[in-house]
Amino acid sequence: MRSICVYCGSGAGHAPIHVAAAKELGTAMAKAGLRLIYGGGGTGLMGAVAQAVIDGGGQVTGIIPDFLKRKEMALSDVQEMINVPDMHVRKMEMFHRADAFVALPGGIGTLEELVEQLTWAQLGRHRKPVVIANVGGFWDPLRVLLTHMREEGFIRPELSVKYAVVDHVADIIPTLQKAVADLPDDALTQEQEPVLIGKM
Questions:
Q1: Which of these, 7, 43, 74, 120, is most buried using a 10 Å CB contact count?
Q2: Per residue in 178-193, pLDDT tens?
């Protein structure tokens, strides 16, 4: 595992623990020599995790659509900033450059990105590990919803949704490392081409 794509909010949220978690993850990634792949913004949790990686001497790749450069205040300190035309290309670039995915707290965009990766994994389009960072119980409502979907028969046993949930930032990288270690050697490089959900 060489890189992690982190999905998170472009806002900071109300609880200070969320920004603290983003900084802690960024610091841990830099220390572990793991490149951050993220949305390129300099605000909120996005900015916090990226700046922490940079401050720790780590490497960051930001991927941002042209129309969001000003709104999300593209972070100029990153070593690599990739400008893309739209959100679909952004998500594909993030997917291909990452060996694993982490969802910190965030809004609708974060939720969409997380669910998209869960869907692609469910359909066998990739085997890259996905970790939900349940900081302060933020993702508990989603966990309840996924359980409800299983109980109602909409997530069938043969189409299980594969992900790990951790409550503490310190557990994110070890959880991903263990998941990657359990995969075949070519699992991170032989993924199928995902179909973009929602693109007509």
A1: 7
A2: 999 988 776 676 555 5
Least Cα distance to 19 among 46, 54, 41, 42 occurs for 46
Residue 158: Cβ-neighbour burial (10 angstroms; 0-12, 13-18, 19+)? exposed
| pLDDT over 90 percentage in the chain | 80
Instruction: Give me 166's structure tokens.
Output: 């951790």
Q: Please give the distance of CA 125 from its chain centroid, rounded to a whole number.
A: 17
Q: Could you tell me which of 14, 49, 47, 5 has the C-alpha nearest to residue 138? A: 14
- Considering only CA atoms, which of 103, 87, 154, 98 is closest in space to residue 126? 98
Task: Report whether 193 contacts 125 (CB < 8 A).
Answer: yes
Domain ranges of the chain: 3-181
pLDDT value, residue 154: 94
Residues 21-53: pLDDT tens digits?
Answer: 999 999 999 999 999 999 999 999 999 999 999
> d(Cα 160, Cα 168) in Å, to the nearest integer?
24
What amino acid occupies position 7? Answer: Y
Residue carrying structure tokens 């472009």: 10
Give the Cα separation of 84 and 37 in Å (integer).
14
Q: Specify the DSSP class assigned to residue 196.
A: P
Instruction: Annotate 34-49 with b (16+ C-beta within 10 A) or e (fewer).
Output: bbbbbbbbbbbbbbbb
DSSP-assigned letter for residue 10 = S
